[in-house]
Design brief:
Layout lengths: L4 H18 L6 H17 L13 H14 L3 H8 L3 H4 L4 H8 L1 H10 L12 H11 L5 H16 L6 H21 L3 H15 L1 H13 L1 H21 L4 E7 L2 H11 L10 E7 L7 H15 L8 E2 L12 E6 L5 E8 H20 L7 H13 L6 H10 L5 E5 L5 E5 L4 H8 L1 H5 L1 E6 L2 E3 L11 E5 L16 H33 L5 H10 L5 H10 L7 H6 L18 E3 L5 H7 L10 E3 L11 E6 L4 E6 L3 H9 L4 E2 L1 E3 L7 E10 L4 H12 L3 E10 L2 E10 L2 H12 L4 E6 L3
Parallel strand pairs: 2-5, 12-14
Antiparallel strand pairs: 1-2, 3-4, 4-5, 6-7, 8-9, 8-10, 11-16, 13-14, 13-15, 17-19, 17-20, 18-19
C-alpha cells in the first residue's frame, strides 16, 4: 500500500526536522548523502506498514533518530543506524546488504539492534537473550545501547495505543532494565521520563493524582524557590560568578516511590524540588575549587546538614556524573537540596556517556576513568559462558541501579562498591581467588566476619586461607554480580566433580553386589537417601554426605507404602481470559482454558483478591496461569524476561470465593486490645481470621492478621473498622 498525500506531508515534516537537528553534527556533503540514503531506504522498506496508532511505520525510526541527535547527542553514524534499526528485523533486507550499502560499522550497529528470533531453546527466555545480545555490543560500541534506549523511549511515548497486556510487558522491561541502564549511562532526563511513563501506564490513577497535586502546589512552590534563591543570587553576583540558578521539581515517579517506600501521603513528601546552580568556570581556577567556593557562599546564608553532603566532584559516580550536592536549612524550617556543577558537568549529567566521551576526546585523555572501569566490569560479566541468559540479566540488573560507597585497600587504593556490599563482595572485587579463599577481614584494623557490611571510608584487608572454599550459604551474603557469579561458578564445578565421583562410587558398589543399574534401583535409592533427583543423590554421595553402608538392605526391601494426604482448593472459575495483545501470539502461547476446568493459581508473592488490578503469567513449570497484582515486583521481573507468557485476565463474579489477605497493624498497647481486634473482625464483620501474630514491647503493639475476604471492598471495610479501634495508630494491607 502506497503512502497517502497526508502520510507524505507528515513524513516530510518529520524528516525536515531531523535534517535541521543534524546540521550541528554534519561536517561534509558525504554525511548529508548517507543520511538521505538511509531515510529513503527505510521509507521504501517499511512502505505499507503502519504502527498500531495508525501512523506510517517510518515515523518511528525518524523519531528514534531525532532523540539520538537532540536528547543523547550522538553523531552521523548513529543517526543512520537509528533510521535503519528495524529494516533487517522487519523486512527482507539482510545485514550483508546493509554493509554493502553503508559500510561495516553501520552494519555492525544495525545487527546489534536487530532482535534474535527463532533460535532460542525451550529453557531460556527470548527477552533475556535479546537483552544479552544487545548488551554484548557494550564490548564493541556503546552507541548501540544508546540507540536502543532511544528506541525504547519513543515506544514508551506512544504506548497508549497498545493493549493492557502489552503495556505490562513493555513497562516491566522498561522499569526493570532500560531505566536503570539509562541511569548507569548517565542519561538522567531519559531515565526520569522512562520511569514516569512506566508509572503513567502501570498506575494511571496514582500518576494523575500526583501530577494534579504538583500542578496545584506550583504557585506556592515557585514563591518559596524565589525567596530561597534571592540571597544566593546576590552573593554569587557580588563574587563575579557567571551562573544560572533554577528550581527543579522531583519526577512523579520518584515522588511516588518515596510515598510507597515510606508509606506517607503526598503532603508529607517535603523534598519535592531541588535548586540547581550551573556556573561557567573561570579558566584559571579549577572547577572543583569553584564548586566548593560556591558551597561556602551558600552555607554562609543557610546552615548545611553535615550528613547530607555528596561530593561527586572529587569522586565522580561510575557513570561519569560530577556535582556537589548539599542540603541546607531554608526559610520556614524546610530542608532544601542544592546541586552545584559546571556547564561541562551539566552536559554530562543530561547527555551522559555521549557528552562524557566528547570531553574525554577533547582533552586527549587516555586515563581509565570511573565509567571505563564500570564498562570493563560489564564486559567481564558478559564474557561469562556459564550463566543462563535469565541469571545473567538478574545479575546485570544489580550492577545498574545502586547507591555507591567508596572503600580502601590496605595500600590506599579506592574501590567503588554498591551500598550494602559486604567484606566478601570486596574480596571478590579484588580478585576471584581472593574471594574464594576468604575467611575473614580486617575492617579499619579490626578483625570482622567476611559477611560484615562495609561502609563508605572503610579500609579493608582480606584474610585468606588455602583450606577455605565457597559455600552455597555465601550467596545470601553478597550483593555484587561478580561475587555472586564467582560463587555459583565454583559451586557448579564442585557439584559436577561430586556427581562424577558419586557415579563412580555407586557403580563400584553395584558391581560388588552384581546388581545392574536400572530405574528400579533409583526408585528405591532416592527416597531412602532423601534425594529428589539422581544428580542430587550422586552429589551427596560424592561429597561424602551419605554412604552406602547397608545399601543392600535398602535394595532388598519392598518400597514401603506411603499414604499421601492432599489438600485441594477449587477456584470455581474466579477468573477468565479476555482478548488483548497479539491474538496470533496469544493463541500459540496461552491456550484457551475451559470454564469447567479452570487452570489458575493465585500468586503467593502478592496474594491478589477480587478488586485488585491483575495480570496473568503462564507458568511453564505448572502450565497454570499465575495471577499477580499489576504492582507485584515479581511480576515486573517475570514480564521483563518472559513477556510472551503475560496475558490479560479479569475477575469474574461467577461465584463467591474467599481469598487470604494480610493486614499490618500497629498502635498503643492496652488491656483487651487483642480481644477487641478479634471482636471487630470476626464478630461485627463476620470475617474469618486464619492467624494473628501480635507482639507487644515498650507500650507499643504491632503485628499481622491474616483474614479471608471475598473482595477488595471487604478488605477496605476491615481496615476502616480496625482503624477506628481506640489505640490503633496504623493499619494497612501488607505490601508483598
Amino acid at each position: 500500500m502506497d503512502y497517502t498525500p497526508e502520510d507524505e506531508i507528515l513524513i516530510g515534516r518529520q524528516f525536515d526536522k531531523l535534517l535541521e537537528s543534524c546540521a550541528k553534527i554534519v561536517t561534509n556533503e558525504e554525511d548529508w548523502e548517507i543520511i538521505r540514503r538511509a531515510f529513503f531506504l527505510a521509507k521504501e522498506a517499511h512502505k505499507g506498514v503502519r504502527r498500531r496508532s495508525g501512523e506510517p511505520y517510518i515515523t518511528h525510526p525518524l523519531a528514534v533518530a531525532q532523540i539520538v541527535v537532540d536528547e543523547i547527542g550522538l553523531g552521523v553514524k548513529s543517526v543512520v543506524a537509528s533510521l535503519l534499526h528495524d529494516v533487517v528485523e522487519d523486512t527482507s533486507y539482510t545485514v550483508e546488504e546493509i554493509e554493502a550499502m553503508f559500510g561495516p560499522k553501520i552494519a555492525s550497529m544495525v545487527d546489534g539492534l536487530t532482535k534474535m528470533a527463532g533460535v532460542f531453546t525451550t529453557d531460556t527466555s527470548e527477552q533475556a537473550e535479546n537483552f544479552r545480545k544487545m548488551l554484548l555490543t557494550l564490548s564493541d560500541d556503546v552507541r548501540v545501547i544508546l540507540i536502543k534506549i532511544a528506541d525504547r523511549l519513543h515506544n514508551m511515548r506512544t504506548l497508549g495505543s497498545m493493549p493492557p497486556a502489552k503495556q505490562i510487558k513493555i513497562t516491566s522491561e522498561t522499569i526493570y532494565l532500560f531505566a536503570p541502564l539509562a541511569y548507569r549511562l548517565g542519561l538522567y532526563s531519559i531515565k526520569t521520563e522512562l520511569e514516569d511513563l512506566s508509572l503513567k501506564y502501570r498506575f494511571p490513577e496514582q500518576y494523575e493524582d500526583i501530577r494534579q497535586k504538583l500542578q496545584h502546589t506550583e504557585v506556592s512552590r515557585s514563591q518559596f524557590i524565589e525567596t530561597f534563591n534571592q540571597p544566593i543570587e546576590e552573593r554569587l553576583q557580588e563574587s563575579d560568578i557567571d551562573f544560572d540558578i533554577s528550581g527543579r521539581v522531583k519526577s512523579i515517579y520518584s515522588i511516588w516511590s518515596k510515598m510507597q517506600r515510606k508509606q506517607i501521603p503526598f503532603e508529607e513528601v517535603y523534598d519535592l524540588f531541588a535548586i540547581r546552580i550551573i556556573f561557567r568556570p573561570s579558566p584559571i581556577i579549577p572547577e572543583k575549587s569553584q564548586c566548593w567556593h560556591i558551597y561556602s557562599l551558600i552555607t554562609d546564608i543557610y546552615k548545611p546538614k553535615p550528613d547530607r553532603i555528596r561530593d561527586w566532584v572529587n569522586i565522580p559516580k561510575a557513570n561519569g556524573y560530577e556535582a556537589l550536592h548539599a542540603t541546607v536549612m531554608g526559610p520556614q524550617g524546610v530542608w532544601v537540596e542544592v546541586q552545584i556543577r559546571s556547564e561541562r558537568m551539566e552536559e554530562i549529567a543530561e547527555k551522559g556517556f555521549a557528552a562524557h566521551w566528547k570531553y574525554k576526546q577533547a582533552t586527549l585523555s587516555s586515563d581509565e576513568d570511573e565509567f571505563d572501569k564500570w564498562l570493563k566490569k560489564v564486559r567481564e560479566a558478559l564474557n561469562s559462558p556459564t550463566e543462563s541468559a535469565v541469571d545473567f540479566l538478574d545479575n546485570f540488573k544489580t550492577t545498574l541501579y545502586t547507591t555507591e560507597i567508596v572503600a580502601f585497600t590496605p595500600k590506599g587504593e579506592t574501590r567503588k562498591m554498591p551500598m550494602g556490599a559486604t567484606a566478601l563482595d570486596f574480596a571478590y572485587d579484588i580478585h576471584t581467588n581472593v574471594g574464594n579463599k576468604a575467611i575473614g577481614a580486617k575492617i579499619n584494623h579490626k578483625i570482622e566476619s567476611i559477611f560484615t557490611p562495609i561502609m563508605s571510608g572503610d579500609q579493608i584487608e582480606i584474610i585468606t586461607s588455602e583450606n577455605s572454599r565457597p559455600k552455597a550459604a555465601w550467596l545470601e551474603h553478597v550483593t555484587t554480580a561478580k561475587a555472586r557469579q564467582s560463587i555459583k561458578n565454583y559451586l557448579k564445578r564442585y557439584r559436577q566433580n561430586n556427581i562424577e565421583r558419586g557415579k563412580e562410587v555407586l557403580e563400584a558398589k553395584m558391581k560388588e553386589f552384581g546388581i545392574p543399574m536400572s530405574a528400579r534401583v533409583f526408585r528405591k535409592l532416592l527416597p531412602a537417601y532423601d534425594s529428589k533427583t539422581k544428580d542430587e543423590f550422586y552429589s551427596k554421595l560424592g561429597a561424602g554426605l551419605i554412604n552406602l553402608d547397608g545399601v543392600d538392605k535398602v535394595l532388598r526391601e519392598n518400597a514401603a507404602s506411603k499414604t499421601l494426604k492432599f489438600w485441594t482448593i477449587q477456584l470455581a472459575n474466579p477468573l477468565k481470559i479476555f482478548g488483548g495483545g497479539d491474538r496470533r501470539r496469544e493463541k500459540k502461547n496461552v491456550p484457551a482454558v475451559s470454564a469447567e476446568e479452570p487452570d489458575f493459581s493465585i500468586a503467593p508473592c502478592c496474594s491478589p483478591i477480587p478488586g485488585d488490578t491483575v495480570i496473568g503469567y503462564r507458568n511453564p513449570e505448572t502450565d497454570k496461569i499465575d495471577v499477580h497484582k499489576t504492582s507485584c515486583d515479581e511480576l515486573t521481573r517475570l514480564a521483563s524476561q518472559h513477556g510472551d507468557r503475560i496475558t490479560s485476565v479479569k475477575w469474574s463474579s461467577h461465584k463467591a470465593v474467599s481469598y487470604l489477605s494480610v493486614i499490618e497493624v500497629r498502635g498503643i498497647d492496652r488491656i483487651g486490645i487483642l480481644m477487641e481486634l478479634t471482636q471487630v473482625i470476626t464478630g461485627e464483620l463476620n470475617i474469618n481470621i486464619r492467624e494473628m501474630h501480635i507482639q507487644s514491647h515498650d507500650g507499643i503493639f504491632e503485628g499481622e492478621i491474616s483474614v479471608y475476604v471475598k473482595s477488595i471492598d471487604d478488605l477496605k471495610i476491615v481496615i476502616a473498622n480496625v482503624a477506628k479501634i481506640k489505640g490503633v495508630e496504623f493499619v494497612r494491607r501488607r505490601l508483598n
